[in-house]
TrEMBL record:
Pfam families: Mu-transpos_C (PF09299). PROSITE patterns: INTEGRASE. It comes from Stenotrophomonas oahuensis. Residues 232-436 form the Integrase catalytic domain. It comes from the Bacteria. This is DDE-type integrase/transposase/recombinase.
Length: 609
């Protein structure tokens, strides 16, 4: 019988006795005594003494021993039988010699088993460390994983180079670490370790700790932290995930056909059926208005919207959401958004800070949508490397309206009707339909919020204002309507909501609904919050403040004219024009200008004498 070249070592049995060096609470300890009351321990290197029970003690494995612990080869009945025979032979030998084995006894056993006496001595040592058959199993040949065979000074130089060069946010390549090790080795007067040894030392570091140093905590957790178990849901609308994304496509102007830029999309997905309940597409960066209209699109039937796009599609997903899941972005943390969710009984489940994997469902759906977008002319792809030499702006052909229609077709016509891996091969549309069939086979319609307008407006940002004889002031603009007359000087702080997309009117909360309150000057039509900011900035640059709302509106009109004129040459101007509200300015001849005092009615006018 030939002896193996190396024997494996396994963690020995824990025999708690006085003088044992062990581990308790992550600290090396020495057993001072074993008593009925417990085990008396002292922390090594200190005077700290405490009591513990056996469950608090772990075996201590020194650094050298830890590196020599080998992975045991695959289980083999022949090897296991051989190990058991060795264990029995060594146990009998030690018992016969009272624990002291002479050279003559080792030689006799070696002759009997056909091995060298040194093999018997090595096996006796393994048996003393751990008297079980596993200690006699053959080990995998080669050095132990993680073992280091360089000189200590060389190891210290490599560690220094890794810490100072490799583990930095600049993320230098391996060659930079190799050069640094070579320089340090030259200073120390020792041969420089090879590239392979340095790479092995880097690979031995904790991937999480390396990623934290090179990528930052956020990306490190996203790549290396354990993913959470999927959300457990039993019915549709029980959990809906919502997120924003920048669309990987350059959109062109519908008029000039020149590039504008990339729009934003806010997507809501039902976790159970993986259906896209709704979305909102806009050139405005994500804000409360985006959240409001995404939730509107998700919560209500879509036939009017599809009709406005001129599409004949089956998009039956809608209903009152039970719980929304979103991240910690400002748009979702806004006071009005949370208050409106509470008002309608919609629970809010926020994603833990800096934990993107908690939004896995909506992230994957957005990734799927972007994958389809990457097939369109003008795509920016997911990154610069993927884009390569592709000229996105030069090849862009789709307008915002084209993208709206294409997305509707992609979602309702394609995505909802493709088998989904997470649904065990079912399509999202089939999963949605199956979820709304009753026990008797009847079709059930999802619950729906009764007042669509009040639901959406309640998500808009708001301010509190008292109503005076002159109306209410929001964003420095004065709003008035005869409906405010009962509230004049009532000394109540009324909640006023406004849309960031259209400041031509505001909404005063009254009871369960809202009252529309338009601007006193109604000649301008729809305009957005960003337009108002730019107009004020333009007046400020001219060294003056608007003395009246008409002067401010004139500035906005001038800017609109300039931007429309510049649309043919400036991409920034085209993007600003694309962000104008869709509503057209109403004709001034059909409106009453409340800024002008009304003349008294002449009762004699038109009377024929």
């Amino acid at each position: 019988m030939s002896a193996p070249k190396r024997e494996s070592k396994v963690t020995p049995d824990l025999r708690i006795r006085k003088g044992l060096v062990a581990v308790s609470g992550g600290r090396a300890v020495v057993v001072l005594g074993v008593h009925k009351e417990g085990i008396h321990l002292r922390v090594q290197g200190t005077d700290e003494i405490f009591w513990a029970d056996p469950s608090m003690i772990e075996p201590f494995v020194s650094g050298t021993s830890a590196r020599t612990i080998r992975a045991i080869s695959d289980s083999d009945p022949k090897d296991e039988k051989e190990a058991a025979n060795w264990c029995d032979t060594l146990a009998a030998l030690l018992k016969q010699s009272n624990g002291v084995v002479s050279r003559k006894a080792c030689a006799a056993v070696a002759l009997e088993l056909g091995v060298h006496p040194s093999t018997v001595r090595r096996r006796i040592k393994n048996y003393r460390d751990n008297p079980v058959p596993a200690s006699q199993l053959r080990a995998i040949p080669g050095p132990s994983p993680g073992s280091r065979r360089l000189r200590p000074v060389a190891e210290s130089l490599i560690d220094k180079a890794i810490d100072g060069t490799h583990l930095t946010r600049e993320r230098p390549p391996l060659s930079a670490v190799v050069r640094r090790v070579a320089a340090l080795s030259k200073e120390a007067g020792i041969p420089a370790p090879g590239r392979k040894a340095i790479r092995a030392r880097i690979a031995a570091r904790s991937p999480m700790e390396v990623a934290k140093k090179r990528l930052g905590g956020h990306d490190a957790h996203a790549q290396h932290a354990p993913s959470v178990k999927g959300i457990e849901v039993s019915r549709p609308l029980e959990a809906v995930q919502i997120d924003h994304a920048l669309v990987d496509l350059i959109v062109v102007s519908a008029e000039s056909r020149k590039p504008i830029g990339r729009p934003w999309i806010t997507v809501a997905i039902d976790v159970l059926t993986r259906c896209i309940l709704g979305y909102y597409l806009s050139f405005d960066p994500p804000n409360q208005t985006s959240v409001a209209h995404a939730l509107e699109h998700a919560s209500f039937p879509k036939q009017p919207w599809l009709k406005s796009l001129g599409l004949d599609l089956h998009y039956p997903m809608f209903g009152k959401i039970e719980c929304v899941h979103w991240d910690n972005a400002k748009t979702f943390q806004a006071r009005d958004v949370r208050a409106q969710c509470e008002r309608y009984g919609i629970r809010v489940n926020e994603r833990p800070v800096r934990s993107p994997h908690y939004g896995a469902y909506v992230e994957r759906v957005i990734g799927t949508m972007m994958g389809a977008v990457h097939l369109l002319p003008g795509t920016t792809f997911s990154n610069v490397k993927a884009r390569g030499s592709y000229q996105s702006e030069r090849r862009a052909v789709m307008s915002f309206q084209d993208l709206e229609k294409w997305l509707a077709e992609e979602i309702a016509g394609q995505y909802h009707n493709r088998p989904h891996k997470g649904l065990r091969g079912l399509t999202p549309a089939a999963a949605w339909e199956a979820a709304w069939i009753g026990k008797r086979g009847e079709t059930i319609l999802p619950p729906m919020i009764g007042d669509q307008r009040a639901f959406v407006v309640g998500f808009y940002p708001s301010v509190t204002r008292k109503v005076t004889r002159e109306g209410v002031v929001v964003k420095g603009l004065r709003y008035w309507d005869p409906c405010l007359t009962p509230f004049i000087n009532d000394q109540i702080d009324h909640q006023i909501h406004y849309s960031q997309r259209d400041l031509s009117k505001v909404y005063l909360r009254h009871g369960c609904g809202f009252l529309d309150v338009p601007l006193i000057d109604r000649s301008l039509g729809a305009f957005s919050w960003w337009e108002l900011r730019e107009a004020r900035s333009e007046l400020k640059a001219r060294g003056k403040l608007a003395s009246s709302s008409s002067e401010l509106f004139e500035s906005m009109q001038r800017q609109r004219s300039i931007q429309i004129a510049a649309e043919s040459t400036s991409k920034a101007a085209r993007r600003k024009v694309a962000r104008f509200p869709k509503l057209e300015a109403p004709a001034g001849t059909d409106l009453v200008d409340y800024a002008v005092a009304a003349a008294a009615f002449d009762w004699d006018d038109g009377v024929i004498e």
